[in-house]
Design goal:
- The structure holds four protein chains of four kinds.
- Helices cover 70% and strands 0% of the residues of chain B.
- By secondary structure, chain B is mainly α.
- Chain B has one domain: MetI-like (MetI-like fold).
- The longest helix of chain B is centred in the first third of the chain and has 34 residues, at 7-40.
- The model of chain B has no long low-confidence stretch (mean pLDDT 88).
- By secondary structure, chain C is an all-alpha fold.
- Chain C has two domains: 2-67; 89-299, MetI-like (MetI-like fold, Orthogonal Bundle).
- Chain C is flat, with a radius of gyration of 28 Å.
- The relative contact order of chain C is 0.12.
- Chain D is built from nine helices and 21 strands.
- Chain D has helices at 43-51, 93-103, 108-122, 137-149, 167-184, 195-201, 219-224, 229-234, 263-271, and strands spanning 4-13, 17-27, 32-36, 58-63, 66-67, 78-81, 155-159, 187-192, 204-209, 212-217, 241-248, 251-254, 257-260, 278-283, 288-290, 302-306, 309-312, 316-323, 326-333, 343-348, 354-357.
- The radius of gyration of chain D is 25 Å and the shape is elongated.
- The model of chain D is unreliable at 369-374 (pLDDT under 50).
- The chains are: A alpha+beta, B mainly alpha, C mainly alpha, D alpha+beta.
Chain lengths: 435, 301, 301, 374
């Protein structure tokens, strides 16, 4: 019964499939169009908003010359780099990949990304970009990826709520102390629950951003020595704990899980008055809460004069080690990071771009509505305050050691002093070991 | 005596022909990568630029200098210890219910199988919503019974129970296996038991359970192996960190971070072989204990 | 004498009455049990379905509504066109065809080959069977991450990158999980059946084909469902091995809704449900195959 | 047709356990051999070696002069009926019976003809389209038989085919199998643990214990002249009485009871030097008689015993009593009314007793003469 029917069916299926594209072995790039060199470009921009923008940039490049044909492939976010790594190991990588800026030096050290200095010697494009971004791509003085886009953290605040609480909507908090005072006034408590929360620092960013903000210093100094156990960091955590006590774990966790899972954000409907996020968060306000009257500001200072330091990240375009067409890939990267493409990207996606000129142009671009321009200008201005925290090549997984300590402190399982001391010690051990 | 090719040996050869596809597949696709990963566990392999022999350094570091290794091992053992008995019992119980003649049984079966089909990141993100301590469905429902729900994914004491709870939700896959094997139990056995005056529970306990032991055994062995490799749910639900306070830093998650975040592939491979040895020993113990309680109808002689 | 007769008659009547009562009792008991089952199953279904309701509800909301806090249980507006938009957001037609192609081949391979191999392990005695079987199990115990890179390199050397071969071909060489599962089912087939067939003149291949396959139908159905599920939901395989978007599968397609900054939850959920639907339908109609158990003890006590 | 020979056959399991040792047997064409013995005696192993399901560890096995050791089962031209019938549950009765023929590539009409013939022979005509689970135990048994018959094999093996049936069916099927054999005259080897089956069906019985043949012979021969105490005790129901004692002054002395031994037996016992030695005397219950009160009572060889239990089995009554401290069963005519507690005189038919070496349990037989007793 089931035997006699199955076998012929099976062979029939095989026969049909043998003509199918998925069963053709050989070089996938064999179908070159004419004399053009086809280069593979992988990005994770597949959404209905970003895809057309990057496709247009690629198309422009393909039309602009007749030697190189870029083939853009969408590879899912996050997993794209696992795939890239496997492809590099198999010596069959794509020619250009978008990757995380903060680990560029690490990939340079590990020989995953190509050293770009040979191209930079011929045409130096380093002055196109924000210095902080450019420096993040360097390992031992050589660049391993060209900055594409970036971000920073700014404070969003609800102007309507400010008015209700008797605050001046054009005067956002400038210091941590003010932030606290404002929040006190903005809080609307209803029995045990809150109808409106003024502010909580760890929604949107983590405590490390506040530690960076407190004194402009990362967990490592210039020489790579850990400096996490600092006075400023202790104060920061104390401040964070104060907030924690103020609202209580239940309220905080409930909101946090919504915000973390990227669903439901209390800022949109006024249940949260102040919120820290990237400038691009504005697009969500624009799309999901168009009526919200809000303002943007730089992160407040710990104390007057300590600086409005903010934290940023971003992405680079890199040539994986083993690419068959690095020259052509370089040409494409140049196009990708040049003013025209960058400005187009910035305007269409409302995204911070790495190219300074393009960023400034975008802020003045006629396509951008006035409301957008305000936020965008703030994003650009804030770049001056923005620091990146590139992964230290000698201790790439240091956060594995720091995070549990910070968690313990916030959960009240460890005192701040103890937690930071332990963190400092494990980091010292780690750097010691990898020397 | 001519002992070259008697029919028993011929039969043995047939046996090899039967498993030939596996042998070929093993040699072609699995053996190479396995041997490679074993060899690389004695090196500082980082996938792209280095692969120098370092002897037992990786293994030594794991046991002597790496607290996270022990943390991750503890977390994994905790998870396995609770999730395996619970999911096994849950699946058996559920299939016993679904093996009855109840109106709409086909729909029920489909419904209970649903979670097993739902897979991937989306489901875990969904669960993050449901486990939201404030507005999440789980705590809301607990609230109806006056039970204050815990902080689940934010409380290091509750993260693992949350994952186990989630696992229980999707016992439908195991249920399928048990259902298939329960169908093979002879009706006459139940009839005989009824005549002997056995209650429903006794029938279940003394007929159903013994008759499906081969599948229980299969389920336990494979879920143990799978349980030790818990990864994706923890990865997604802790944002790839394993927090809070490393409470979701499971063995494979830590290994993943070592392999693909710090590119310490040699180290990760050493970790994988330690896990292999642990799971292998447990499986061998399982196989040795099996004859005491696993009843194969086919071997009754 | 009449007294005796009356007494006897009364006794008879009583006996009949008590028999009635007995059977009535059994009847009501059975009905009651069935009712309890039904209630249990229905209550459980709610538990199972509530996360799925969440998916459905989210899939019908507008993004603005998804983002409101606290979340709403029902969509305020039912945006049915989300489903159409989802399907149009990427070439899902192509993805569906691709996924069906891969899945079909994997299922055929899994069902045929694993059954073949498992028969060898269960019913053909040969030297080294125990050790080889232990190796089969061992292959499940090594976490996939550590063999991921070497395996990719291997397939790359075979020029199989950007083809379906790495996704489909291994299925034709057996998988440890299914071999183990089917072996467990073969073990429950009485050896006498095999021996009888041997004496009748059948070779092992013949026995496998004419006796082994039909008798393990429920298990094969389970394997079919599991392998269907596995191939249909496979994410990592297609992700790694397919470079051409025209070859992508549904699971890869769904990823377009997940960005680095925000996720289009409504489309993601709508897409997930659409992808889930065929599996559910298939399961619903397929379940009769593993419900059709075969009573293996037909000869016995 | 077929003659089978087993020569010095051994079976070892795992090189430690010896299941069968030094098995020698020669079967003539058309014989019905029954292998009998308690469970674990190796009888099934012998059968399975003949079938080719177990390997012969050492020794030789021939069918019609052809060495079969290395021939796979399918080429031995044998048919076998299993204890659990081993019917294929997914096939109809017809398909079950036709299976072997299909494999041997018989023509369709030939298969049909043979199956229908066998079905008629076994009364299965109406059931050909049913599946095994819709059959009763006896019907399944018949199908299993039919499956073997259609093959028309040289050798017919049956492994406890009746043990899963109830008493009445077993009795009926026993007769049927015997009848079948008379018709088909196929050489058959039949394994059972039931001595009654063995006695009633066999042309020759082989009694086995612990992997060793105890005795081979025609049922009557084995019954009348058991080679040892094991065979004596195993064959026959109720089983043979055994009394330990010694020969003193031409009498067999059991504790305080003395019984005269006939001179012809005394002769060889004396010759072989058993006088004064520990011996075991075996006597079948039917050879113990009840003496009528009065006339014969008190004569020599009569034993006064108190009846403990009296069991009516139909034509006979079993009387349980003690000889000294050793249990004794007598089978007497059922019309004799003896109640428990009653004291009666019993007498032994001493011409029918056997003497066994107490240590070895082997029957002491006249050295030269082959005079049979009874």
């Amino acid at each position: 019964m089931f035997s006699k029917k199955l076998l012929p069916l099976f062979f029939a299926v095989l026969l049909v499939l043998s003509g199918c594209a998925g069963f053709k072995t050989g070089d996938s790039k064999s179908a070159d169009s004419g004399d053009k060199v086809v280069i593979d470009f992988w990005s994770f921009w597949g959404s209905e908003i970003r895809r057309p923008v990057i496709d247009k940039i690629v198309e422009d490049f393909n039309k602009s010359q007749d030697k190189i044909e870029v083939k853009h492939t969408f590879v899912p976010w996050g997993d794209i780099w696992t795939k890239e790594l496997a492809a590099i190991a198999a010596k069959n990588p794509p020619d250009v990949v978008i990757n995380d800026i903060n680990a560029t030096a690490l990939r340079g050290q590990k020989n995953q990304a190509m050293n770009l200095s040979q191209f930079l010697e011929k045409d130096d494009i380093s002055d196109r970009f924000y210095e902080e971004l450019w420096n993040a791509t360097l390992y031992e003085g050589d660049s391993y990826g060209i900055p594409f886009n970036t971000d920073t953290r700014i404070l969003f605040y609800n102007k309507t709520a400010f008015k209700e609480a008797g605050l001046d909507p054009e005067k956002p908090p400038a210091t941590w102390e003010e932030l606290w005072e404002y929040a006190e006034k903005l809080d609307v408590k209803n029995g045990d629950t809150y109808d409106r929360i003024g502010f909580y620092p760890l929604w949107g960013v983590n405590s490390d951003v506040w530690m960076l903000n407190s004194d402009g210093k990362n967990f490592f100094d210039e020489d790579g020595a850990p400096i996490i156990d600092s006075e400023a960091n202790r104060e920061t955590l104390e401040w964070v704990l104060d907030w924690h006590k103020k609202y209580g774990a239940n309220t905080i966790n409930s909101y946090k899980s919504q915000i973390d899972s990227q669903q439901g954000n209390p800022f949109f409907n006024g249940k949260l008055a102040m919120y820290v996020n990237t400038p691009t968060f504005y697009t969500q306000i624009r799309d999901y809460a168009p009526d919200l009257d809000f303002g943007v500001a730089m992160l407040p200072e710990r104390e007057p004069g300590s600086g409005n330091t903010s934290w940023g990240g971003g992405f680079v375009a890199e040539i994986p080690q083993g690419s068959k067409h690095p020259e052509e890939a370089w040409e494409f990267i140049k196009h990708l990071t040049d003013v025209e493409a960058q400005e187009y990207w910035a305007v269409k996606n409302f995204d911070n771009v790495a190219n300074i000129k393009a960023a400034e142009n975008a802020a003045k671009n006629s396509e951008m509505p006035d409301k957008d321009k305000v936020v965008y200008q703030m994003a650009i201005d804030n770049m001056e305050n923005t620091l990146l925290t590139p992964v230290p090549v000698h201790a790439p997984d240091f956060m594995n050691l720091v995070n549990p300590e910070l968690d313990s402190i916030l959960l009240g399982k460890k005192s701040i002093e103890q937690g930071l001391k332990d963190a400092q010690q494990s980091l010292e051990k780690l750097t010691e070991k990898s020397k | 005596m001519r002992k070259k090719l008697n029919y028993k040996r011929m039969e043995g050869l047939q046996g090899y022909v039967f498993i030939l596809p596996w042998i070929v597949g093993f040699i072609a696709f699995t053996a190479g990568p396995l041997i490679f990963s074993f060899a690389a566990s004695f090196t500082n392999y980082n996938i792209t630029s280095q692969m120098d022999f370092v002897g037992f350094d990786n293994y030594e570091n794991l046991f002597t200098a790496d607290n996270l290794f022990w943390t991750s091992l503890y977390n994994t053992l905790y998870y396995v210890l609770f999730s395996i008995p619970l999911t096994t019992a849950g699946a058996i119980f559920l299939s016993a219910l679904l093996n009855q003649d109840v109106p709409g049984i086909r729909f029920f079966r489909t419904i209970y199988y649903l979670p097993a089909v739902l897979s991937g990141v989306g489901v875990y993100l969904l669960w993050m919503q449901l486990l939201d301590p404030g507005t999440g469905l789980v705590n809301t429902a607990l609230g109806w019974f006056g039970i204050p729900g815990p902080n689940w994914l934010f409380d290091p004491d509750w993260t693992k129970p949350a994952l186990i709870f989630m696992k229980l939700w999707s016992v439908g896959g195991g249920m399928l296996l048990y259902l298939a094997s329960m169908q093979g139990v002879s009706k006459s056995l139940y009839e005989a038991a009824k005549i002997d005056g056995a209650s429903s529970w006794q029938q279940f306990r003394f007929i159903t359970i013994p008759m499906i032991t081969p599948v229980i055994f299969f389920d336990i062995v494979t879920s143990l192996i799978g349980g030790f490799q818990i990864f994706q749910e923890a990865y997604v639900m802790s944002n790839g960190e394993g927090g809070p306070v490393n409470s979701m830093l499971f063995y494979n998650l830590y290994m993943w971070k070592k392999a693909f975040e710090s590119f310490d592939m040699g180290y990760a491979m050493a970790m994988s072989w330690i896990l292999f040895i642990i799971v292998f020993i447990i499986t061998i113990i399982n196989l040795k204990l099996a004859p005491r309680w696993v009843h194969y109808e086919g071997e009754e002689r | 004498m009449e007294e005796v007769e009356v007494a006897a008659k009364k006794r008879d009547e009583e006996r009949v009455a008590s028999a009635h009562a007995y059977f009535d009792n059994i009847h009501t008991k059975r009905k009651l049990l069935s009712l309890v089952n039904f209630i249990l199953l229905a209550a459980g279904s709610l538990l199972i379905l509530s996360p799925i309701w969440w998916m459905i509800s989210t899939s019908l909301k507008s993004m603005a509504e998804v983002m409101t806090y606290p979340p709403t249980f029902y969509p305020r507006e039912w945006n049915w066109d989300n489903y159409i938009k989802t399907w149009k957001a990427a070439p899902f037609d192509t993805y569906a065809i691709n996924t069906i192609t891969i899945t079909m081949l994997v299922v055929i391979g899994s069902v045929l080959v694993n059954s073949f191999i498992a028969y060898g392990f269960a019913k053909v005695p040969f030297k080294g069977r125990g050790i080889l079987f232990a190796i089969v199990l061992s292959t499940m115990m090594i976490p996939g991450f550590v063999t991921l890179i070497p395996q990719y390199v291997l397939f790359s050397k075979l020029q199989w990158i950007n083809t379906y071969f790495p996704l489909v071909v291994p299925a034709f060489f057996g998988s440890a999980f299914f071999i183990f599962l089917l072996r467990q089912f073969y073990m429950t087939i009485p050896n006498e059946l095999i021996e009888a067939a041997k004496i009748e003149g059948a070779s092992h291949f013949r026995i496998w084909w004419t006796i082994g396959l039909p008798l393990t139908k429920p298990a094969l159905a389970t394997v079919a469902i599991f392998s269907f599920n596995g191939a249909w939901n496979d994410f990592l395989g297609p992700l790694l091995y397919l470079n051409d978007e025209s070859l992508y599968t549904l699971q890869l397609g769904l990823q377009v809704f997940k960005g680095e900054m925000n996720t289009q939850w409504n489309y993601l959920m709508a897409g997930s449900l659409l992808v889930l639907l065929p599996v559910i339908i298939l399961f619903f109609f397929f379940q009769k195959y593993f419900i059709q158990g075969i009573n293996l003890q037909s000869g016995g006590k | 047709m077929s003659k089978i020979v087993l020569k010095n056959v051994y079976k070892h399991f795992d090189k430690k356990v010896t299941a069968v040792s030094d098995f020698n047997l020669s079967v003539e064409d058309g014989e019905f051999i029954v292998l009998v013995g308690p469970s674990g005696c190796g009888k099934s192993t012998v059968l399975r070696m003949i079938a080719g399901l177990e390997e012969i560890s050492s020794g030789e096995f021939y069918i019609d002069g052809k060495l079969m050791n290395d021939i796979p089962p399918k080429n031995r031209d044998i048919a076998m009926v299993f204890q659990n019938y081993a019917l294929y549950p997914h096939m109809t009765v017809f398909d079950n019976m036709a299976f072997g023929l299909k494999i041997r590539k018989f023509k369709k009409d030939e298969i049909k003809k043979r199956v229908e013939e066998a079905a008629e022979l076994l009364g299965l005509e109406e059931l050909l389209h049913r599946k095994p689970k819709a059959l009763s135990g006896g019907q399944r048994q018949r199908v299993a038989l039919g499956r073997s018959i259609v093959r028309d094999a040289k050798l017919f093996l049956m492994d406890e085919p009746l043990s899963n049936l109830d008493a009445k069916l077993r009795f009926q099927m026993r007769a049927e199998i015997a009848k079948l054999h008379q018709r088909l005259k196929t050489t058959s080897i039949y394994v059972t643990h039931d001595q009654t089956e063995a006695m009633t069906m066999a042309s020759r019985i082989i009694i086995m214990k612990d992997g060793v043949i105890q005795q081979i012979g025609a049922p009557k021969d084995v019954y009348d002249n058991p080679e040892n105490t094991f065979v004596g005790g195993f064959i026959g129901s109720p089983s043979m009485n055994f009394f330990d004692g010694r020969i003193v002054d031409g009498q067999f002395v059991v504790e305080d009871v003395r019984i005269n031994v006939p001179e012809e037996k005394m002769e060889y016992l004396r010759e072989q030097g058993f006088v004064g030695k520990e011996l075991t005397m075996g006597i079948r219950p039917e050879h113990i008689h009840l003496l009528r009160g009065g006339e014969e009572a008190g004569q020599t060889n009569s034993i006064l015993s108190k009846i403990i239990v009296s069991e009516l089995t139909g034509a006979h009554t079993l009387l349980y009593s003690m000889l000294g401290t050793q249990e004794m069963i007598a089978e007497v005519e059922s019309r004799t009314n003896v109640s428990p507690g009653e004291d009666v005189y019993l007498t032994f038919d001493m011409n029918c007793v056997h003497f066994f070496d107490k240590e070895a349990g082997i029957r002491i037989r006249p050295e030269k003469s082959e005079v049979l007793v009874g």
